[in-house]
Amino acid sequence: MIFSYPVFKYMGMQSSLPLPSWKVVLSQIIFYFILEDFVFYWGHRILHTKWLYKHVHSVHHEYATPFGLTSEYAHPAEILFLGFATIVGPAITGPHLMTLWLWMVLRVLETVEAHCGYHFPWSLSNFIPLYGGADFHDYHHRLLYTKSGNYSSTFVYMDWIFGTDKGYRKLKALKSFGIEDDPKQM
């Protein structure tokens, strides 16, 4: 974030009063989520190619059953590579500093929730269509190989469009019929 400050300033970031309206903030945050999902999906999918997975992304996958802190546990190259997905939206729009901070807080909360290992009754995936959440991301971490699927960040539309969530959807269907979720049975 410190090194990206000059880029944000150059792209028009404001830090003075007046604060942007809630409509501006909301539209920018929605744009950031959509763009971040698209960029993250492709970056994450690339990290699951054989060489990058072995040398970079496998660090993040050392935990097959993730918990909140593992959301930020990654190889430095991965942090830079996937971090681009988070900052590209604000770099394009030049938001107010408060909007940028809100965006960063929402991203950290989302990624911690996705890695928390629990699907709570109040989880956003119960209320927001196409929201992945912990259940969706846990499936991704439990399969320790390069083609695990479920590469999306927040929303699952990219995995659905490109069919990289087929294993997860199959598991959900089996669970709905009461069949044990042992990956060896699939």
TrEMBL record:
Record has DNA-binding as a keyword: no
GO terms classed as biological process: lipid biosynthetic process
Main location per the UniProt record: membrane
Residue span, Fatty acid hydroxylase domain: 30-164
Pfam families listed in its UniProt record: FA_hydroxylase (PF04116)
Alphabetically ordered keywords of this record: Membrane, Transmembrane, Transmembrane helix
Residue stretches spanning the membrane: 21-43, 79-103
GO cellular component: membrane
GO molecular function: iron ion binding; oxidoreductase activity
Compartments in which it is found: Membrane
Coiled coil: none
Family note: Belongs to the sterol desaturase family.
PANTHER family: STEROL DESATURASE
Name of the protein in question: Fatty acid hydroxylase domain-containing protein
Source organism of the structure: Citrus clementina (Clementine)
